[in-house]
Amino acid sequence: MSTAEAPPPAPLAPTPLNIEEELKESYLTYAMSVIISRALPDIRDGLKPSQRRILVAMRDLGLTPGASTSKCAGIVGETMKRYHPHGDNSIYPTLARMAQWWNMRHLLITGQGNFGSIHGLPPAAMRYTEAKLSPVAAEMLEDINLDTVDFQPNYDEKYQEPRVLPAKFPNLLVNGSGGIAVGMATSIPPHNLGEVCDALVAYIDNPAIDLDEIMEHIPGPDFPGGGTICGQMGIKEAYLHGRGRVVLRARSVTEEQRDGRSQIVFTDIPYQLTKEPLLKKLAELVNNGRITGVSDIVDESDRKQPVRIVVKLKKGEDPNVVLNQLYEFSPLQDTFSVIMLALVDGRPKTLPLKEFLRLFVEHRVVVIRRRTQYQLRQARQRAHIVEGLLIALHHIDEIIRIIRTSRDDNEARARLMGMEVSAQILRRALDDESAKASTSLTRMQADAILSMQLRRLTGLEADKLAAEYAALKADIDRYEAILADEQLILGLIREDLLELKSKYADARRSAISDEEVGDFDKEALIREEYMVVTVTHDGFIKRQLPSTYRAQGRGGRGIAATNTRDGDFLEHMFVALTHDYILFFTDKGKVYWIKVYDLPMATRTSGGRAMVNLLQLSEGEKVTGLVPVREFREDESLLMVTRRGTVKKTELTAFRRPLGRGIIALGLDEGDTLIGVQRVKAGDQVILSTRDGMAIRFDESDVRSMGRPAHGVRGISLEDGDEVVGMVVANGQDDPASLLTVCSHGYGKRTMLAEYRSQNRGGKGLIDIKTSDRNGPVVAVAKVTDADEVMLTTAKGVLIRTRVADTRPIGRNTQGVRLIRLDDGDTLSNLAKLPEEELTADGPLVPDIEVAGDGDGPAPDGLAAADEAPPAHLLDDGVAEAEASDHIDDGDAGDEES
């Protein structure tokens, strides 16, 4: 009976698919593949998968540093066959880059042939070039066969590849890395190997080390091509937060030609920049007039000097102006964005420098522990076999009988394993009194006995086995000790790092300058400390540590404070903290604002930097007053004095937001100039001193507070030809301090403030010092105590740091004593008081800061303790000279009013 065919099954209903979810899942899978398997380096060995696979493939081919080179085509083929099936277009450029000196701080591959050039030429085809592993790459692969790292199946599961290399060499910091993943990127600059090793050793010795201490070893990146890094702000920001910007400039020298023209020679170029596009850009900038004053650009590079770019200038052009244009508009100044991002446990993380050091050390701890465990297993296994061989030698007759009477290997093995060994024979065989009796030989020992050669029966071979067993026991004890104490592991890492440094480290190639370029969060990056700020008559400014100068006795010769230019001399000097604001008051009655840390740091004998490059001064405008300010307090004011004796008081808060182009500080009459500014508060008194030796003291309340544009009121009445040279602030009528007055010929005197009675503002004042031919006119005054030290500077740039206590107080109407011995033709130009150094059980205290001469105020209230108070080392004390003529009148000649 026929039956009808069964109907076909109904088609399944389509499953709805949310396209948004599918795209999210697929894109996330792609992104993670790019992040983990392509673009980002591992924090442990600093390699991307492609780089790691190339090095492993070269090791498989036996291309060690001592071997001959092999064709890169074969290396690429082996890498593609075993580990990286993504084509030669991705493998060969990666291989070539690891052999290029201008990209790698220490080459991982030693190349033979054309691997490209810094001029911009590409590498030759891989069939023409050859390569092998470099010595530092061999350090990366060392101990890889000792179970130090995990392996995983390759793409087709035919081979095993390491997940990471043992990496004795700190590759990630030394060679850096760069890569763009999905939604993130890494850009780690290269560093100097010796500095990195020193920092790692310092971290091992002190895991609590802070960034400042680390930067004593690693001051900044060290690029393969050299260059000059501008400032440390960007470096510190990157090391602190994992992100920052480093401004890198090509290094240059200026050469003078016989025809009077100048040329700028660049001997290196910024990192990852090649010459060909640079030269094209320079020519374009010159042709379109963006860079002026250039007559020609010549590339004089050769094999001995890979980079020598000569920019020839037109006659009469200033090289500094052209150099600034080149840095501003051309790639000769480049910004390297630091992104310290790497894979940590398979996840991308942005890390500060200290974390890089910690994670590398942790990786090496794991590697050495695993290596030691592997070596311990091998040593124990070998010791077990040697133990069986030694036992066999002491039972040789029985062993031979068992073997000869056995039908086959299996029977002989079984009978040997059943043979008992007495404790006495075991101790004698192993030369170990602590050895315990073994009931029987193990299978491993029995197999070793069966494969033992007859020559092992000689006495010499028996002695070798005994020596080997003793050495194995010593190794086992050492391995067990290492595994039981992590400090021993850290000690091994420390030895490895010092060995790497001695074998491969070289000198730093990139210089680091003090000039900052760019915007940074400077407040969080700069240590608060005292600085001596000096300004010359021609407007050159710099800062330096107070410890630069040593204390001397009164009458000493002094040391050079700065290398002034012809006709220039020191005019301002004061001490302030790095975080202080500096208000720059000019002779035209304007005020500008800047931070102390923005001033250029320089050596004692350097000339400094022109203030016109820091402040937007108008032509002919000159800074005459500088006030350090930490906080713009409402209960304080600024008291200004002009050369003609006009004074004006304005609240400090009125100056809290000066503009870059400056703001008006006071109105000036025609021909008058501002010569000094001081901070005052209620109860203070002001003393004005004049060039002809007059002084007036009055209450600050005599001067009412005025707005910034006001002209002020009369402070002192002057005789014809006289002018105001300085101002100090006294803390009321009972101020125990004294007034130090100095004259141009190096003489001066110190008089107690109590001897200057208070008068009404606007009078002619009292005689302060006799301005005789010996003394010369008054140049500056300062309020001082016995505990103070002062710095005296001369027009030729000589400076002496001396103790105030060396000059005893005398009366007002006197000539004083010699304070500094001057060379012929030199004159005293300025006076500044250094802060006191007070030490307590809690450490250094912040001293008050008071500066005399051209006017600065006391230190702001509420300052935190500085990291380091300026020392006053009592070295090379001079001999105080006090001739009879130095003290014409030790008493007061009377309170004569002029």
TrEMBL record:
A motif (GyrA-box) lies at residues 552-558. Residues 40-525 form the Topo IIA-type catalytic domain. Residues 857-873 have a biased composition (Low complexity). Its main location: cytoplasm. It comes from the Bacteria. Its EC number is 5.6.2.2. It holds the Pfam family DNA_topoisoIV. This is DNA gyrase subunit A.
